[in-house]
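About this split. The held-out portion is used to measure sequence recovery: a designer receives only the structure tokens and must propose an amino acid at every position. Recovery is the fraction of positions where the proposal matches the reference. Here is one held-out target exactly as it appears in the evaluation file.
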């Protein structure tokens, strides 16, 4: 618990630095593996001009570069705010074992108007019932990519 407090406060500090630099929103993330900080980042959406440059995603990208591979198996992600669905999915795909956060989505919504709850609501619906329209086209051609991938993996 003492180490968790140290790392969550570090994530909050990173968020504050990002705000002062004007590079993104009020979010920070620190990734720890085997007791060592392997990456940290603030939200960088303004700096990168990229809606996906959330603190957690940027920290995951930096961690992968620092480790030389994309898997963060067993790592803990410390975030100044509860990760959004995109960041949660990114952590899942990276193999993060644990996520520790300070503020809740509802806090971010009440104070600054970050509408993450709407995204969760949309994701709970089937693709054909969401605000963004979804259409499936050329399924067979899309399946070919997966067959190519399977053949590639067998050659490795």
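Reference sequence for scoring:
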């Amino acid at each position: 618990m003492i180490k968790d407090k140290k790392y969550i406060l570090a994530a909050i500090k990173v968020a504050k630095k990002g705000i002062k630099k004007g590079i993104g929103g009020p979010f920070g993330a620190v990734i720890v593996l085997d007791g060592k900080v392997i990456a940290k980042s603030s939200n960088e959406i303004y700096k990168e001009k990229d809606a996906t440059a959330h603190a957690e995603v940027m920290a995951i990208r930096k961690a992968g570069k620092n480790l030389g591979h994309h898997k963060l198996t067993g790592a803990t992600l410390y975030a100044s705010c509860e990760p959004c669905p995109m960041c949660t999915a990114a952590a899942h795909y990276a193999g993060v074992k644990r996520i520790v956060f300070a503020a809740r989505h509802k806090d971010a919504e009440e104070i600054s108007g970050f509408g993450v709850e709407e995204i969760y609501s949309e994701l709970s619906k089937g693709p054909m019932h969401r605000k963004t329209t979804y259409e499936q086209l050329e399924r067979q051609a899309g399946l070919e990519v997966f067959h190519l991938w399977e053949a590639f993996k067998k050659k490795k």
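Annotator remark: Strands lie at 28-33, 36-42, 76-81, 98-103.
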